[in-house]
Write a structure and sequence with these properties.
The complex is a heterotetramer, with two copies of chain A and two copies of chain B. By secondary structure, chain A is α/β, with parallel strands linked by helices. Helices cover 17% and strands 26% of the residues of chain A. In chain A, the strands form two sheets. In chain A, strands 1, 2, 3, 4, 8, 9, 10 and 11 form an eight-stranded mixed sheet that branches. In chain A, strands 5-7-6 form a three-stranded antiparallel sheet. Chain A is globular. Chain A starts with 10 loop residues before the first helix and ends in a 21-residue tail after the last strand. Chain B contains five helices and 15 strands. Chain B is globular. Chain B has a single domain (5-208), classed as Glutaconate Coenzyme A-transferase (3-Layer(aba) Sandwich), CATH 3.40.1080.10. By secondary structure, chain B is of the alpha/beta class. The chains are: A alpha/beta, B alpha/beta. The A-C interface holds A 1-4, 111, 113-117, 163, 165, 167, 183, 198-199, 201, 203-204, 206, 209-212 and C 18-19, 21, 39-41, 43, 45, 51-52, 76, 78-83, 86-87, 89-97, 135.
């Protein structure tokens, strides 16, 4: 009896069914909390024409940046694409379509997608390029724009701990977009650092209930750091 | 003399209040954290999902799972909390953050701000800036008053794509502390040793002031 | 013979599948939990914020902080989780629940359902029923086929205020298992010993069937 | 220096500033997880003409039901008002205005209010009385209605544990509407069973960050049970 056991035995199985032209929603912020190995599997499969929804597009050769050299991404929906030369090149030449979306709007679009809310109003982006082609409406004397939600054929997630039912716990700021993305995939695939026994996770402290999770795999992670800032050097405040 | 980056941060820190939840943007705003008055508690929000950001870690405490919105490794203070990005922007969009400090390329007399894009040149994306600008009531923009070539960044109308419309009321530059209201820049304070005339010269939008404009105190 | 409440629940339980997340409404639907097949795992969602509802507690384990949507004290199973009401209805509205079973006063041939209000008589509120009806793809309505006075509850048009419009595809009554499609009731199964004629007589909306209508198997 | 210390010393102080005609958003589901003592304080103060937003309106003489005899509530926004005779009487006679709102829509309206989202679309209630006077719109072939968000002058919350910064942890199904309501008050007042030292709560496991909380008080709670169901009696399945 399979029941609620979400564990799959290989990354191949984890990403089975992903096809050219699909939409993939990915957790992660910069290099933090990204599903590194699920991305590697998409790279290995050479799936193409993808629409990828993620706050960033990784860095060159790491994270979602892996999918750039072979031009696997057709369209990127992200809030920030800086610090990736290949990305910038493909965007400038028009090889890659980019839909820049404010970070909070992106988060809310993904949450709304998972929650069955097709659209919502937000003040963010009113009067800017982001508002172009979108409905404006006034509520209580303030202007808002209408934003539609996002769902994906696949959601790819990195969590810290899970039980085999797919109940997830995230760690520190590696949480970021992951719990939202987990709700927004037709098929939600999660890779974790540790799988614990069912019942070990405190039911009050589960960040993502297993109902959102379809497949689960334990992986090992490089966890590359983008900006290694160390005290007490005041020169490392970065800009 | 024009303020240094550190002095701009220091002057901003005078606007803090005890018990404030504050979001500091990348660059000069980040430096404000170094000038929080001794007798005051302030909590820093980082929009990637952290309330209660602390200092940079040591080699021993560095943690790849603990970064700020600028992707720098950080630590947390006692009483901090982590949350997801939707919750983080619920805080921001819902107006729960008391003060937001962020940089800009341009601001104008209508309170418009351009800070994320130079068409054909710099297209990195707005990140959380549009949400911060739309969500906060209390925003301080920090920037240099003019470019290196002497072109004013305080305009009648922003020329670059906007980050937000009509949302900025306070600007602190290396030369002046300015309030935006009724379609004008109001000069509140000037940097020590900088004359009102110099500020007028480097301000493109209409600048007004009352009587003697005081120097900033540090 | 018309099915008992327990038999209705038992027949519904045959629609369960291994690994289903299920929301059971108050009344007969609650009884379905007693008939989950031995070789099957099913998780019960309670819309007040619980996934993995267990049995009623004992005197020793009763906990005022642990209730179901019917406000009854309950327990949890291993692997359960608690969450807030917004998250709970994100699950429901977002279509993440595999099966919803709920009661009704009336259903009609357009898949409309009335289940929460009898004007001037019963105005208790819809609770989570409207969300459940709008959010789930797979809903089974359980009800008696007709009132005690012989008035059909399967109508051409609901007469009471609707809980949802066009959302019901399957109805299990004490007499019949019915599918709603293309504006008609399709008789799939009849209760043991109940004739097709009896069912037709007590069905107000258009009822169709193909060949011999099988009896329910228990 | 007050800093982030949210603790107040009395219930009087906790509810200071509440005035006739204000809107109060309350956590709780039935009798579970309700801010009993904050409600008692409103009863004691005899604040009137209130608009109260809560999933239920308590039972006679307990919870929000306390505010009925002296007719302190002008308007109730709730999803379920059953099992309260005085409530039904006031509603039938028109003394009390009631806006019945689907439970999930109510939860989302409160969350949206706290999150700066003025309105959103939902399929819930389409084609029903709930949709009257509201905009309908089609997204991807399905009909939705536009629902506006809710905020309150006060939010009253019951949590399990807190630290003095107002970081909150809820317990089991007593969580319900509480974390949502906590975000939606101009002034959010929280009563808890236990106040722990700052730093004791795991930062990964705080349900409501202190930024939403203005006042905090430790109380003692009756925690009345509405439906005491005990196994193994099969007669207690209740309807």
């Amino acid at each position: 009896m399979a029941g609620f056991d979400k564990i799959v035995s290989s990354y191949e199985e984890a990403m089975a069914g992903i096809e050219d032209g699909m939409t993939v929603v990915s957790g992660g912020f910069g290099s933090c909390g990204i599903p590194e190995n699920l991305i590697k599997e998409i790279y290995r499969k050479e799936t193409k024409e993808l629409t990828v929804v993620s706050n960033n597009c990784g860095i060159e050769g790491y994270g979602l940046g892996l999918l750039l050299p072979k031009r696997q991404i057709k369209k990127m929906i992200a809030s920030y694409v800086g610090e990736n030369g290949e990305f910038e090149r493909q965007m400038m030449t028009g090889e890659l379509e980019v839909e820049l979306t404010p970070q909070g709007t992106l988060a809310e679009k993904i949450r709304a997608g998972g929650a069955g809310i097709p659209a919502f109003f937000t003040a963010t982006g009113y009067g800017t390029l982001v508002a172009e082609g979108k409905e404006n409406r006034r509520f209580n004397g303030r202007e808002y724009i209408l934003e539609e939600s996002i769902t994906g054929d696949f959601a790819i997630i990195k969590a810290w701990k899970a039980d085999r039912y797919g109940n997830l716990v995230f760690r520190k700021t590696a949480r970021n977009f992951n719990p939202l993305a987990a709700t927004a995939g037709k098929i939600t695939v999660v890779e974790v650092e540790e799988i614990v026994e069912v019942g070990e996770l405190d039911p009050d402290q589960i960040h993502t209930p297993g109902i959102y999770v379809n497949r689960l795999i334990q992986g090992t992670f490089e966890k590359r750091i983008e900006q290694r800032t160390i005290q007490p050097s005041s020169a490392t405040t970065g800009e | 003399m024009a303020l240094s980056r550190e002095q701009i941060a220091q002057r901003v820190s005078q606007e803090l209040q005890d018990g404030y939840y504050v979001n500091l943007g990348i660059g000069i705003p980040t430096l404000v954290a170094n000038y929080i008055p001794e007798n005051m508690e302030v909590m820093l929000q980082s929009e990637n999902g952290l309330l209660g950001m602390g200092q940079y870690p040591t080699e021993e405490t560095i943690d790849a799972d603990l970064i700020n919105a600028g992707k720098q490794t950080v630590t947390i203070v006692k009483g901090a909390s982590f949350f997801d990005s939707a919750e983080s922007f619920a805080m921001i969009r819902g107006g729960h953050v008391d003060l937001t400090v962020l940089g800009a390329f341009e601001v104008d007399t209508n309170g418009n701000i351009a800070s994320y894009m130079i068409p054909g040149k710099l297209i990195k994306g707005m990140g959380g800036a549009m949400d911060l600008v739309a969500g906060a009531d209390n925003i301080i923009v920090t920037m240099t008053h003019a470019s290196k070539h002497g072109e004013s960044k305080l305009l009648t109308n922003c020329t670059l794509p906007l980050t937000g419309k009509g949302s900025i009321k306070k600007v602190l530059t290396d030369l002046a502390f300015i309030e935006i209201k009724e379609g004008k820049f109001h000069l509140l304070e000037r940097a020590p040793g900088v004359s009102v005339e110099e500020i007028i010269k480097l301000t493109d939008g209409e600048l007004v002031f009352k009587g003697d404009v005081p120097e900033m105190q540090f």
